Every structure is written in C-alpha cells, then in structure tokens.
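Exercise 7. Given the components listed, write out the predicted structure of the assembled complex. Treat all entries as one system.
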Amino acid sequence: MRQDASPRQDQRDSASVTLQDIAAHAGVSRSTVSLVLRESPLVAERTRLKVQRSIKALGYVYNRGAAALRGSRTSTLGVVVYDIANPFFGAMVAGIDAALNREGYVSFLANSEDSPARQQRFLERMREHQVDGILLCPAEGTDPALIDTLDDWGMACVQVLRHVGEPPFDYAGANFHQGVCQAMNHLVALGHRRIAFLGGHSEHSATRERWQGYRESLEHHQLAYQRLLRSTVTRRDGVDMIEKLMAESPAPTAVVCHNDLVAFGAMLGLKRLGLVPGVDCAVIGTDDVEEASLGDPALTSIATHPHAIGEEAARLALRRIANPAGAREQVVLAPRLQVRDSCGAARPASDAAVPDPAAGEHA
Amino acid sequence: MRQDASPRQDQRDSASVTLQDIAAHAGVSRSTVSLVLRESPLVAERTRLKVQRSIKALGYVYNRGAAALRGSRTSTLGVVVYDIANPFFGAMVAGIDAALNREGYVSFLANSEDSPARQQRFLERMREHQVDGILLCPAEGTDPALIDTLDDWGMACVQVLRHVGEPPFDYAGANFHQGVCQAMNHLVALGHRRIAFLGGHSEHSATRERWQGYRESLEHHQLAYQRLLRSTVTRRDGVDMIEKLMAESPAPTAVVCHNDLVAFGAMLGLKRLGLVPGVDCAVIGTDDVEEASLGDPALTSIATHPHAIGEEAARLALRRIANPAGAREQVVLAPRLQVRDSCGAARPASDAAVPDPAAGEHA
DNA sequence: GCTAAGTTTTAGATCAATCTAAAAACAACC
DNA sequence: GGTTGTTTTTAGATTGATCTAAAACTTAGC
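Answer.
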C-alpha cells in the first residue's frame, strides 16, 4: 500500500533489532558490529560494507540508552533558562540548538521561572539521566555552591548570561558593562548631560555589570546628574519609571534601559505624556530584539546577540565535556550600539546651563 | 569545610552508588531495593525504612538509563517547534514544561526552523533515545506519512497548533476558525463592511482554518468586499500589506491579521501613511501576546492562550503514553476576543453608501 | 506439630550496548 | 614449514537496573 522507501516491511513488527540480530544476519560477531557502528579503523573494508548492508536491511536503530550504560557519554545536555517566553531567551535557545545539532548532541530544556527549587528539581533529574553537561542561566537566588555541586556530580556546567559564585567558572555572555558605556558615550557626544538608567532587579551579575557601566560613565564624563531606578524589567515598568522621572525637576534628557521591553515602555510613557521619544527625551534599549527596528520611532539599542551567545555557550560546554580538566573559560561577546531614531540630540531649549558645542558636531 | 546537609562526604569519590551497594549496606537483596525505589506495596514497612536510610546514607542516584533499558518507559518526551524565538512558542513551551514537570517527565527540545530535514534528523535521534512520545508542531512541507511512521516507531505523537494528514490523530490547538468569526462579528457589529484579512503562508492547517473563518463570515454577513492577502507573518509583512491595501480604492475599513506581529506592522504602516489605527482603519490581531495591551493604540486581539495549549498538549501526550490504544483526541481551545482600542467603529465619513445604524449601538 | 495460605524476600536471567584481552587469520621472512 | 608480526575478529565480562519464578518466612487452622 504505502510506497515509501524505508524498509519497514522487512522488520518483525516493532520488536527492536539489536546488534545480535545484525551479527547473525551478517555472519559476524556482536563486537564487530559494534566496531562498525563506531567507525573503528580496526574493521576490514569488506566486513564493514557487509555489516552496513545488514544494518540497513534490518532497519536497525541505535540504542543510545544501552550505549550510555556501558560507555561514558550520553550525548545529551540540560539547558535551564528562567523565562523561555522572553524572545531573547528564545533566540538564545535557538543558537544553542543550532550548535548542538551540528555535533549530534540533543538537549533537555527546563524553564525555571526564576525558582531555585524548580531549578534544583530539574538538575537532579538531569543527573538521573546522566547528561554530559548543563547550560545554566541561574535562577534568581541560586546558591553559588550549586556550581561546585554540579562539578562534583561530574556534569560540565556553563553559566550563561548571568553567573553566580566566584571565577574561575565557565561562562558565556555579553559585555553589558561595555554596552552601557557605548550608549553613554553616544549620548554624551550628542550633548546629553542628564542621563538616567532604567531598570534592573536585585543582585544579578548581568544587572550589576550594567549599573557599573552607568556609574563609571557618569564619573568618566564628570556628569553630576545620577538617577538609577531599580525595577523588574517589563514594558509596564518602563511606562511607570519614565512617568515618574519626567515629573521630576530637573527631568533627564535621555534614558538608557535595562532591556528593550523597558525601552518600549519608556517610549510609550513619553507619548502618553505628550512628549516625543528621541526629541523630548532620548531612549536607548538593550538586546536589539527584532521589534526594535520597527518601533515608532525606531529604537536605538545595545545589540547583545542572543543567538551567538547561545552558540558560544554550547560550544564551550562541548569543549569542557571533551576536556573536563581544562582551564575554565569566559566567553564575553562585545555588544554593538545599533543607532536608530530614538536618541536625537538633547534639545538646546531645555534648561541646560551651557549648551554643549559638541552636540553640533555629532547631530 | 562546606556546611551543607548533603551527605557528600560519605560517598566514595564520584564513583556511582548502585542498587548492589545499597543492598549490601542495608543487608537485603538488590531486588528488594529495586522494589523500595518503585514504591512497591510488596515490601514490609521495616525493610522499607531500613533501605531508605541506606539510600540516603550512600547518596544514591537513580540511573534512569539503566532502568529504561530493562523497563518500557524513559519518562522523556521530544518537543519540536519551528520558531522558538517567537514568544508565542516560548509561552507554549513554558506550558508544556509546567505540565510535564508535575508528572516527573522531562523533554528534549528542537527548533526545526521549518525544515523537514532537520525535523527528521531530530526525530530519528529521539527514536535512538527512546523517548515515550513527541509533541510536534510540524515543519512546513512535512510529509503526512510522518505521523504513521512515528506510530510505527512506537512513539506517541501529539500534533500541536498545526496538523498534517487526516484524522484521527492526537492534536491540541486553538479554534482559529471560531476566533476569526468572533473578530468578524465584532467588526460587523461596529458597522464595518469592507474587511480584509492579512497574512498566512502556504497550506498550513492553522492558516486554512483562519481563511475559512474569514470567508464564511463574509458569506454569513453577506459582505461583497473580499480581500485576502497571503504572506509570511512578520511585522514587516504587516507594513507592506497595509500600505498596499490603503492605496486601493475602495480601501478596507478594517483588517484582521494572521497574528499580532502582522497587526503591529499594520498599525505602524497606517501611522506612516498619516492614518490613525482604530479610527481610520480598525486592526485586529491574533494570539494576544503580552505586547498587545501596550501598543499605541492598544491592540484588539484574538487570544489563543499558548500556555494553555502547551499544557493540554503535554497532558494529552501523557494520556496517550499511558494508553497507546485509546481513541485519538483533538483538544481545541476556544479563543477569546480581547477588545481594546485598535478597532473603533467604521467612520461615517468614509465612502460607505449607507451608514449602518448598528454602529451606534456598539460603539 | 503439621499443612495451607499468605506475605516478603531473593537468585538469576535479561535488556542492548561497550570493553578487554585473547584468539584467529593472514602475510612476510628465513 | 615454522616463526614472527600484523591485522581482524571474537568470546565473555560488564554496566545498573527490572522481571520472573521460586524460596523463605509468617500466620492461621485443625
């Protein structure tokens, strides 16, 4: 009836074909078949071909579970993120998937929802499944000792985007510090003197790095105005924070945001106040998600390349699995400031004491 | 040194503790320990407690690979989506994760990028790993025979969101047909007579269902104007399509969009033309992603509840695994029209021959 | 005290691969 | 033809759990 090419008809119904069956069919031993499967150079060309024919004829399926029992690798990895519904993590997971796919690895995914308990449960499951390694965006409140524990468990662990504990550890992420400095330099060059930073929650490494960049930039450019608002990092937070800030006196002429969601919120908040983003107040986001270029106005954003970070993290994990004793690595990707319409020059009309001549040069 | 509660000190260094070791420690047989682990009622209370103490004392870790080799289940599932960077799928995966987590299942994730070849590679890997089942958002161009093949492989397969082939099959998704009808009814009640449908690509079930809803609504309300534009479904497509439509004469007074991204694009396109979304042209999206409520104006959208769909799909898969011979099920969730500001009444000023009195009732 | 029935426990086979160490096959050389 | 050295192949042990069928231990009844 069915006309497809697979040799399903030949197989006995759904009963699984084993090395033993192939050995019998090809007239060799189980060991030889195993060697063929693992592409050992020990086996003679003629034998190899004969065995491969039998493998095809019987529709053999490699049993990775059985192989893992005797061997040392499972070719599986665990991936933990805390918000898979966030497109940033989606892109990152896509990068991980692409890199692993190339190497024949496959990954379990868990969404911790920033709950250390849930994260812990998943990691214990991963241990039971004997994954070779873990890619971990640690949930908020993760005990730094966890990294050592994973090491004791014999699973390679690469932290991604955030990290807990002290180096040396394996890590892949973006240089948020540098990214914020780039944004600040750009704004200062445009003549801005009152720049606020919006958002960031509790004590994550990724937040600390941004805030440090902000503070150091202020110092470096000798700017007196400093306004750093903590918050969760949703679009609504952006609305709330910008409304609060613009009611202050003096109000900022520019804001740098923890991520693009906050930045979208800030732009929306400005519009609700009857102000024009990029004219009345410059807005810069972080991540450069796909929507950034299609905003109104198009959002200037610090591009952090989640797909690339995912790929780097996966590759680092594979390196560590291949060489568990090797030196720990930190792969920190440089961000790039993607300039668009939401960060015009500071208005001369605003109450700046001395209009900056530099503004003209760069406007 | 380290003060945590885990009995790591007792274990011999990283060598794994087996049932045999526990049996020796507790003074019982390997079989008894196995029964305790699986909570068999056969084991006497005293023995059970004794064995559980030994399990704790030795820091035993269950080896699921070994268990799967002898047993029939792996407690693993494969999940295939075609665009994990899309927040809609992110939310769906979060729903799947939540439902599986409760049942002690864990899932492999793959991002097919709508490539049947890549999807096929992943499914073969899943077979090698002997997953109990697959949650599949089939890639574009998937051969309908694939569903039967998976069945032959002995893996439960639940299609999600899209489906290929003929029923009966297991499926979880949203009632897109009904959703579009709700949107159309709403627009008609507001007085709209020229309603276009934007977006949808090639022959997916999820697209066909939307288009059918559109066409049947037109017929039901006896509307002569029909304009259905095919496209991929990105924000940019929305911009392009609305610009094209508004240049036509007569132009539509409302558009229903394949998803929220297209709708955002349509709103942006209207603004670029100097028109006001919700006033000059009503816009309705599909999915009701988080951003919908924060748009400018807030977007009316057909909420399809991706998280709930993910949960339903996962639960259905677990049911099928528990009972492979059971009747196939289709779980189709009813969408809900989330009315916001982007779909005002059709303007009396526009060239409608007869202003509809119904518009007043609902405005 | 012995048998029968019920409750607990266990030895040994099994699952499907890998690994080790040794055997078999082949070639080359004296 | 026998020895040596390679190249191939293989038997059998091993991995860590589950399963089956039987053994060992209780308890009840006469």
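Discussion: The radius of gyration of chain B is 27 Å. Residues 22 and 55 of chain B are 6 Å apart (CA to CA).
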